[in-house]
Amino acid sequence: MTPVDGRRRFCRAWLGGMPLALLAACAQPERRPGAGAAHWSGRIQLRVQDPDAPQSFAAHFELHGSAQQGTLDLSSPWGTTLARLQWHPGQARLETSGGQRTAASLQALLQEVTPAPLPVEALFDWLAGVATAASGWEVDLQALNQGRLSAQRTAPAPAALLRILLD
Length: 167
Hints:
This protein is about 25% helix and about 40% strand. It is built from three helices and nine strands, in the order H-E-E-E-E-E-E-H-H-E-E-E. It starts with a helix and ends with a strand.
């Protein structure tokens, strides 16, 4: 086993066990659509299953607002700020250690942070418990009352898997 293989095994074991540890450590109140839940926090993981260049992204997140206006803070498991996104109609701003960028939408800037585009409008509905359709995505909300959400992108290729564990 090479040192790289050892690191990969460690990372896989750590990422695989962390959601279970977090889930065991906290209880999630039931979230109902339209209940005014404008704040979510937890862990997000996005894996792009490209056989040639697989990519993975994992972070702690604090999300406030709606698809039209809000803030999203992303941090590492050690608490280091990775990015802060703020948006309102017609403009979005991304702040990272590398500086600031602006764009016309949250969707445009979020693609700079994650390895695959996310269905932003649908994601807010999914967090509120509404299984809104998103082109190429299949969402599983069965465990949302326990604070877990998963979605899989089947098209366009490559496939992607999104997992969210709410605090």
